[in-house]
Amino acid sequence: MRFDEAYSGKVFIMSRASEEEADAVIYGMPMDWTVSFRPGSRFGPNRIREASIGLEEYSPYLDRHLEEVSYHDAGDLLLPFGNAARSLDIIEDYMDELMEKGKFPLGMGGEHLVSWPVIQSVYKKYPALAVIHIDAHADLREEYEGEVLSHSTPIRKTCELIGAENVYSFGIRSGMREEFQYAAESGMHLYKFDVLEPLQKVLPELGGRPVYVTIDIDVLDPAAAPGTGTAEAGGITSKELLAAIHAMAGSEMNIVGADLVEVAPAYDHSEKTQIAASKLMREMLLGFVQ
Predict the structure, then answer these.
(1) pTM for the structure as a whole
(2) The 24-29 sheet, strands edge to edge
(3) What is the pLDDT of residues 22-31, one digit of tens each?
(4) Which of 58, 73, 144, 253 could bond 211 through an S-S bridge, CB–CB 3.0 to 4.6 Å?
(5) Which GO terms describe its molecular function (predicted)?
(6) What residues does each domain of the chain span?
(7) At residue 41, what are phi and psi to the nearest 5 degrees?
Protein backbone atom coordinates (compact mmCIF):
# COMPACT_ATOMS: atom_id res chain seq x y z
CA MET A 1 0.00 0.00 0.00
CA ARG A 2 1.59 3.28 -1.11
CA PHE A 3 -0.91 5.84 0.19
CA ASP A 4 -2.41 6.20 3.65
CA GLU A 5 -6.01 5.04 3.42
CA ALA A 6 -6.93 7.11 6.49
CA TYR A 7 -6.80 10.23 4.30
CA SER A 8 -8.26 8.75 1.14
CA GLY A 9 -11.54 10.65 1.47
CA LYS A 10 -9.97 14.06 2.01
CA VAL A 11 -8.79 15.78 -1.15
CA PHE A 12 -7.86 19.27 -2.27
CA ILE A 13 -10.83 21.17 -3.62
CA MET A 14 -11.92 20.15 -7.14
CA SER A 15 -9.45 17.27 -7.37
CA ARG A 16 -10.18 15.05 -10.38
CA ALA A 17 -10.81 11.36 -9.88
CA SER A 18 -8.10 9.94 -12.13
CA GLU A 19 -4.35 10.44 -11.91
CA GLU A 20 -3.89 9.10 -15.42
CA GLU A 21 -6.03 11.87 -16.93
CA ALA A 22 -4.56 14.65 -14.79
CA ASP A 23 -1.84 17.06 -15.89
CA ALA A 24 -0.78 17.71 -12.29
CA VAL A 25 -0.71 15.55 -9.19
CA ILE A 26 -0.99 16.84 -5.62
CA TYR A 27 0.49 14.53 -3.01
CA GLY A 28 1.32 14.70 0.69
CA MET A 29 4.66 13.86 2.29
CA PRO A 30 3.71 13.54 5.99
CA MET A 31 7.17 13.31 7.53
CA ASP A 32 8.62 15.22 10.48
CA TRP A 33 11.17 12.71 11.73
CA THR A 34 14.22 15.04 11.75
CA VAL A 35 12.86 18.33 13.10
CA SER A 36 15.06 20.26 15.52
CA PHE A 37 12.34 22.15 17.41
CA ARG A 38 8.62 21.38 17.16
CA PRO A 39 7.17 18.31 15.40
CA GLY A 40 3.73 18.18 13.80
CA SER A 41 4.24 19.05 10.13
CA ARG A 42 3.26 15.49 9.20
CA PHE A 43 -0.31 16.64 9.83
CA GLY A 44 0.04 19.61 7.48
CA PRO A 45 -1.07 18.12 4.15
CA ASN A 46 -4.41 16.91 5.44
CA ARG A 47 -5.24 20.18 7.17
CA ILE A 48 -4.37 22.12 4.02
CA ARG A 49 -6.86 19.92 2.17
CA GLU A 50 -9.52 20.62 4.77
CA ALA A 51 -8.89 24.38 4.60
CA SER A 52 -9.17 24.31 0.80
CA ILE A 53 -12.89 23.62 1.11
CA GLY A 54 -13.31 27.26 2.14
CA LEU A 55 -11.61 28.57 -0.98
CA GLU A 56 -13.26 30.06 -4.00
CA GLU A 57 -12.39 28.06 -7.10
CA TYR A 58 -11.66 31.27 -9.01
CA SER A 59 -8.49 33.37 -8.69
CA PRO A 60 -9.03 37.11 -9.28
CA TYR A 61 -5.25 37.49 -9.38
CA LEU A 62 -4.79 35.19 -12.37
CA ASP A 63 -8.30 35.27 -13.85
CA ARG A 64 -8.37 31.48 -13.89
CA HIS A 65 -10.72 28.90 -12.40
CA LEU A 66 -9.70 25.54 -10.97
CA GLU A 67 -11.90 23.83 -13.53
CA GLU A 68 -9.35 25.00 -16.13
CA VAL A 69 -6.60 22.85 -14.58
CA SER A 70 -6.71 19.07 -14.62
CA TYR A 71 -5.21 17.82 -11.35
CA HIS A 72 -5.54 14.84 -9.06
CA ASP A 73 -4.94 14.67 -5.29
CA ALA A 74 -3.28 11.29 -4.74
CA GLY A 75 -3.37 11.57 -0.94
CA ASP A 76 -0.57 11.18 1.58
CA LEU A 77 2.30 8.81 0.93
CA LEU A 78 2.53 6.10 3.55
CA LEU A 79 5.92 6.71 5.19
CA PRO A 80 7.50 4.56 7.92
CA PHE A 81 7.42 6.54 11.15
CA GLY A 82 10.89 7.55 12.33
CA ASN A 83 12.74 6.07 9.35
CA ALA A 84 14.00 9.08 7.42
CA ALA A 85 16.14 7.21 4.91
CA ARG A 86 13.38 4.80 3.88
CA SER A 87 10.83 7.63 3.76
CA LEU A 88 13.03 9.60 1.37
CA ASP A 89 13.44 6.53 -0.85
CA ILE A 90 9.65 6.10 -1.01
CA ILE A 91 9.18 9.74 -1.99
CA GLU A 92 11.86 9.54 -4.70
CA ASP A 93 10.44 6.31 -6.13
CA TYR A 94 6.98 7.85 -6.40
CA MET A 95 8.38 11.01 -7.93
CA ASP A 96 10.29 8.97 -10.52
CA GLU A 97 6.95 7.50 -11.60
CA LEU A 98 5.33 10.92 -11.89
CA MET A 99 8.28 12.20 -13.94
CA GLU A 100 8.05 9.20 -16.27
CA LYS A 101 4.33 9.85 -16.76
CA GLY A 102 4.94 13.53 -17.50
CA LYS A 103 2.91 14.83 -14.55
CA PHE A 104 3.46 18.16 -12.83
CA PRO A 105 4.19 17.35 -9.16
CA LEU A 106 2.82 19.67 -6.45
CA GLY A 107 3.81 18.34 -3.04
CA MET A 108 2.76 19.21 0.48
CA GLY A 109 5.02 18.63 3.50
CA GLY A 110 5.99 17.63 6.00
CA GLU A 111 9.38 18.96 7.03
CA HIS A 112 11.63 20.53 4.43
CA LEU A 113 13.84 17.46 4.04
CA VAL A 114 11.04 15.91 1.96
CA SER A 115 11.94 18.29 -0.89
CA TRP A 116 15.35 16.64 -1.29
CA PRO A 117 14.25 13.35 -2.90
CA VAL A 118 11.81 15.26 -5.10
CA ILE A 119 14.58 17.52 -6.39
CA GLN A 120 16.78 14.49 -6.99
CA SER A 121 14.10 12.91 -9.12
CA VAL A 122 13.27 16.07 -11.07
CA TYR A 123 16.97 16.61 -11.75
CA LYS A 124 17.22 13.18 -13.40
CA LYS A 125 14.71 14.36 -16.00
CA TYR A 126 15.89 17.97 -16.22
CA PRO A 127 19.71 18.13 -15.92
CA ALA A 128 19.65 21.89 -16.57
CA LEU A 129 17.48 22.35 -13.48
CA ALA A 130 17.46 25.50 -11.35
CA VAL A 131 15.82 25.65 -7.93
CA ILE A 132 13.99 28.60 -6.39
CA HIS A 133 13.89 28.30 -2.60
CA ILE A 134 11.70 30.62 -0.53
CA ASP A 135 12.23 30.23 3.21
CA ALA A 136 13.12 31.87 6.51
CA HIS A 137 16.05 29.50 6.95
CA ALA A 138 19.11 28.93 4.79
CA ASP A 139 18.93 25.10 5.12
CA LEU A 140 22.59 24.96 4.10
CA ARG A 141 23.98 22.85 6.93
CA GLU A 142 25.90 19.69 6.10
CA GLU A 143 24.47 18.02 9.21
CA TYR A 144 22.59 18.82 12.40
CA GLU A 145 24.08 17.38 15.59
CA GLY A 146 25.74 14.65 13.55
CA GLU A 147 22.70 13.77 11.45
CA VAL A 148 23.15 14.35 7.72
CA LEU A 149 19.46 13.65 7.04
CA SER A 150 18.00 16.76 8.63
CA HIS A 151 15.45 19.39 7.70
CA SER A 152 18.30 21.92 7.94
CA THR A 153 20.26 20.31 5.05
CA PRO A 154 18.14 20.04 1.85
CA ILE A 155 19.40 23.18 0.12
CA ARG A 156 23.04 22.32 0.82
CA LYS A 157 22.41 18.90 -0.69
CA THR A 158 20.70 20.56 -3.66
CA CYS A 159 23.69 22.88 -4.21
CA GLU A 160 26.03 19.89 -4.24
CA LEU A 161 23.78 18.01 -6.67
CA ILE A 162 22.89 20.62 -9.30
CA GLY A 163 25.62 23.20 -8.70
CA ALA A 164 25.35 26.04 -6.21
CA GLU A 165 25.14 28.59 -9.03
CA ASN A 166 21.78 27.07 -9.99
CA VAL A 167 20.18 27.61 -6.58
CA TYR A 168 18.30 30.81 -5.73
CA SER A 169 17.19 31.40 -2.12
CA PHE A 170 14.91 34.24 -1.06
CA GLY A 171 13.61 35.62 2.24
CA ILE A 172 16.40 34.06 4.30
CA ARG A 173 16.63 35.55 7.78
CA SER A 174 18.07 32.75 9.87
CA GLY A 175 21.10 30.47 9.74
CA MET A 176 24.58 29.82 11.06
CA ARG A 177 27.38 32.19 10.11
CA GLU A 178 28.95 29.29 8.22
CA GLU A 179 25.84 28.87 6.08
CA PHE A 180 25.97 32.46 4.89
CA GLN A 181 29.70 32.11 4.27
CA TYR A 182 29.05 29.01 2.17
CA ALA A 183 26.43 30.88 0.16
CA ALA A 184 28.81 33.76 -0.51
CA GLU A 185 31.73 31.53 -1.47
CA SER A 186 29.93 28.81 -3.42
CA GLY A 187 28.31 30.96 -6.08
CA MET A 188 24.73 30.31 -5.05
CA HIS A 189 22.28 33.20 -5.04
CA LEU A 190 21.05 33.98 -1.52
CA TYR A 191 18.88 37.02 -0.85
CA LYS A 192 18.27 37.96 2.75
CA PHE A 193 14.99 39.15 4.27
CA ASP A 194 13.02 40.08 1.14
CA VAL A 195 11.43 37.94 -1.57
CA LEU A 196 9.52 39.81 -4.25
CA GLU A 197 11.99 42.52 -5.30
CA PRO A 198 15.09 40.30 -5.65
CA LEU A 199 13.01 37.55 -7.25
CA GLN A 200 11.73 39.93 -9.92
CA LYS A 201 15.30 40.93 -10.72
CA VAL A 202 16.53 37.36 -11.34
CA LEU A 203 13.52 35.95 -13.19
CA PRO A 204 14.74 37.15 -16.63
CA GLU A 205 17.99 35.17 -16.31
CA LEU A 206 15.97 32.02 -15.63
CA GLY A 207 13.83 32.42 -18.73
CA GLY A 208 13.41 29.16 -20.63
CA ARG A 209 15.08 27.05 -17.94
CA PRO A 210 13.41 24.18 -16.07
CA VAL A 211 12.83 25.39 -12.51
CA TYR A 212 11.64 23.65 -9.37
CA VAL A 213 10.05 25.87 -6.69
CA THR A 214 10.12 24.97 -3.00
CA ILE A 215 8.36 27.17 -0.43
CA ASP A 216 8.62 26.86 3.33
CA ILE A 217 5.58 28.43 5.01
CA ASP A 218 7.84 29.89 7.70
CA VAL A 219 9.03 32.54 5.24
CA LEU A 220 5.83 34.25 6.34
CA ASP A 221 5.92 36.28 9.52
CA PRO A 222 4.61 34.28 12.50
CA ALA A 223 1.77 36.81 12.72
CA ALA A 224 0.52 35.43 9.40
CA ALA A 225 1.58 31.80 9.86
CA PRO A 226 2.21 30.71 13.47
CA GLY A 227 1.49 27.08 12.63
CA THR A 228 4.98 25.95 11.72
CA GLY A 229 7.72 24.01 13.44
CA THR A 230 10.46 26.66 13.51
CA ALA A 231 8.77 30.06 13.48
CA GLU A 232 11.08 33.01 12.87
CA ALA A 233 10.16 36.65 13.58
CA GLY A 234 10.61 39.28 10.88
CA GLY A 235 8.98 37.53 7.95
CA ILE A 236 7.11 38.66 4.87
CA THR A 237 3.36 39.03 4.43
CA SER A 238 1.10 36.57 2.68
CA LYS A 239 0.40 39.33 0.15
CA GLU A 240 4.10 39.45 -0.80
CA LEU A 241 4.33 35.68 -1.08
CA LEU A 242 1.27 35.57 -3.32
CA ALA A 243 2.82 38.29 -5.47
CA ALA A 244 6.02 36.23 -5.72
CA ILE A 245 4.03 33.21 -6.94
CA HIS A 246 2.28 35.37 -9.51
CA ALA A 247 5.59 36.85 -10.67
CA MET A 248 6.96 33.36 -11.24
CA ALA A 249 3.75 32.32 -12.97
CA GLY A 250 4.04 35.24 -15.38
CA SER A 251 7.71 34.67 -16.15
CA GLU A 252 9.35 32.82 -19.04
CA MET A 253 10.62 30.04 -16.75
CA ASN A 254 9.59 26.45 -17.36
CA ILE A 255 8.32 25.54 -13.90
CA VAL A 256 8.45 21.75 -13.71
CA GLY A 257 7.32 21.14 -10.13
CA ALA A 258 6.77 22.75 -6.76
CA ASP A 259 6.09 22.09 -3.11
CA LEU A 260 4.87 23.83 0.04
CA VAL A 261 6.23 22.52 3.33
CA GLU A 262 6.40 22.92 7.11
CA VAL A 263 2.74 23.61 7.96
CA ALA A 264 2.29 22.32 11.53
CA PRO A 265 -1.39 22.84 12.40
CA ALA A 266 -1.19 22.10 16.13
CA TYR A 267 0.43 25.48 16.80
CA ASP A 268 -2.31 27.52 15.12
CA HIS A 269 -5.78 27.05 16.52
CA SER A 270 -6.99 29.98 14.42
CA GLU A 271 -6.15 27.90 11.31
CA LYS A 272 -4.82 30.94 9.47
CA THR A 273 -1.63 29.09 8.55
CA GLN A 274 -3.41 26.28 6.73
CA ILE A 275 -5.87 28.77 5.23
CA ALA A 276 -2.93 30.73 3.79
CA ALA A 277 -1.28 27.51 2.63
CA SER A 278 -4.37 26.33 0.80
CA LYS A 279 -4.62 29.63 -1.07
CA LEU A 280 -0.94 29.47 -1.97
CA MET A 281 -1.55 25.96 -3.31
CA ARG A 282 -4.47 27.19 -5.41
CA GLU A 283 -2.38 29.98 -6.89
CA MET A 284 0.47 27.59 -7.72
CA LEU A 285 -1.96 25.23 -9.42
CA LEU A 286 -3.46 28.02 -11.48
CA GLY A 287 -0.19 29.82 -12.15
CA PHE A 288 2.28 26.98 -12.67
CA VAL A 289 0.16 24.34 -14.45
CA GLN A 290 -0.88 25.28 -17.96
Answers:
(1) 0.96
(2) 71-76, 24-29, 104-109, 254-261, 210-216, 130-134, 167-172, 189-192
(3) 999 999 999 9
(4) 253
(5) agmatinase activity
(6) 5-288
(7) -70, -10
